[in-house]
Design a protein that fits this description.
Layout: H1 3-16, H2 23-33, H3 40-58, H4 60-73, H5 80-109, H6 113-134, H7 145-156, H8 165-175, H9 180-206, H10 214-242, H11 245-266
Helix pairs in contact: 1-2, 1-3, 1-10, 3-9, 3-10, 4-5, 5-7, 5-9, 6-8, 6-11, 7-8, 8-9, 9-10
């Protein structure tokens, strides 16, 4: 890829991975609309590694605490932190299973601009509805295995391009009565295992490739990591004040643009 394509795609990934606007959609669109070459598997792995590093570094204290509590819970020492750690594991299972079962079908049939336009609008409206109608005051430590599983089932829907993993998990959490900050934090913590699984799966596929663009990988990893870290920091600082409305408006505008482009192609 051209170096400018690498830079822009890495920044797009870093911004869109944790904002409720769909990273998969934004990485598909440049090749669809602008005619950019497909970024390829190696670059996908690189930007996933960058996003993973960003969320792990940002939540390093939480991850250290939860990991220690989880290990202690294996010896029957149960705490609110160990429960939260187990809920993160439980919330990851549905997406992991769905990815193994449906990834081939999704790759073959759902990575189209039509699907992205529909899901961008539909899940944008659901996010706005959840924020306005259902948002409550529950915190992270009021999670139960049932609410964690429901959020995990919602996360599995994010395999469909345009849905947004962070967007659909925040939507589910808000619908279950959690406050914005708790919904966002659980979504970001839930990203750690699922990005690790996704990146690891793609990394195994990468072993079959004989030629790997290492310069693209290094640039993509670093830029996506820095951008994603800043994005998480800014989002958590702003979400309580601005809510989800700006992201809903963005999704609706993007969906409308895609529909216009689709109509133009068909005329």
């Amino acid at each position: 890829m051209d170096i400018m394509h690498v830079i822009w795609l890495a920044i797009i990934q870093g911004l869109s991975e944790f904002l409720p606007i769909s990273s998969s959609a934004h990485l598909i669109l440049p090749s669809t609309i602008l005619g950019w070459p497909d970024q390829g598997l190696a670059f996908d792995v690189a930007v996933h590694v960058g996003s993973f590093l960003a969320v792990v570094v940002y939540f390093r204290h939480d991850i250290r605490t939860l990991s220690a509590a989880w290990l202690n819970s294996l010896g029957q020492s149960r705490t609110p932190e160990s429960d939260l750690a187990w809920y993160l594991v439980l919330g990851t299972v549905p997406a992991g299973i769905a990815g193994l079962v449906f990834s081939g079908f999704i790759e073959a049939h759902l990575r189209s601009m039509t699907v992205i336009a529909v899901t961008t609008i539909l899940f944008g409206l659901l996010l706005g509805w959840a924020d306005l109608r259902f948002r409550g005051g529950k915190t992270l430590y009021e999670l139960t295995w049932k609410t964690a599983l429901l959020i995990g089932l919602a996360q599995a829907l994010a395999l469909i391009p345009g849905t947004s993993r962070s967007g659909v998990t925040m939507t589910a959490a808000l619908m279950l009565g959690f406050d914005r900050m708790s919904a966002a934090r659980f979504s970001f913590l839930l990203a750690v295992p699922i990005i690790a699984l996704s990146g690891g799966y793609k990394g195994l596929q990468l072993l079959d490739q004989t030629s790997v663009p290492w310069s693209d990988i290094v640039i993509g990893t670093v830029l996506s990591a820095v951008t994603a870290y800043l994005c998480i920091h800014s989002f958590l600082r702003l979400v309580e004040r601005v809510g989800m409305l700006p992201f809903v408006i963005y999704r609706l505008a993007l969906g409308a643009l895609l529909i216009v482009l689709l109509v133009g192609e068909g005329s």
